[in-house]
Amino acid sequence: MKATLFAALAILLSIASPAFAAAGTQGHSGILVWAFIGFFALIVVAQLVPAFVILFAAVKGLFQGREASEIKVRNH
Q: Which of 14, 29, 61, 67 could form a disulfide with 33 if both were Cys (CB 3.0 to 4.6 A apart)?
C-alpha cells in the first residue's frame, strides 16, 4: 500500500514538473489586444459621460431653491 502510494505520487509529480519549466511570461501584447482593451475603454467612457451629466443635474436640483423648482399650475 505504501509503495503504491509512493509510486502514484512520484508519477504525478513527474508529470506535473514540465508545468514549472516556463518561469516567466513574455509580456508582448499584439495590436489586437490593445485594440480590444481600447474598445472596451471607449464603451466605459461613453457610459460615464451621461452618468456624470445626470449626477450633476441631480446635485444642482438638490441645491437649487425651492421656488425655482416648483411648477406653477393654472386654475381653470
A: 29
- CB within 8 A of 69, min separation 6: which ones? 61
Q: Which domain holds residue 58?
A: 30-65
In a domain, residue 5? The reply is no
Indicate the pTM of the whole model: 0.44
> What is the residue-averaged pLDDT of the chain?
79
- Within-domain flag for 7: no
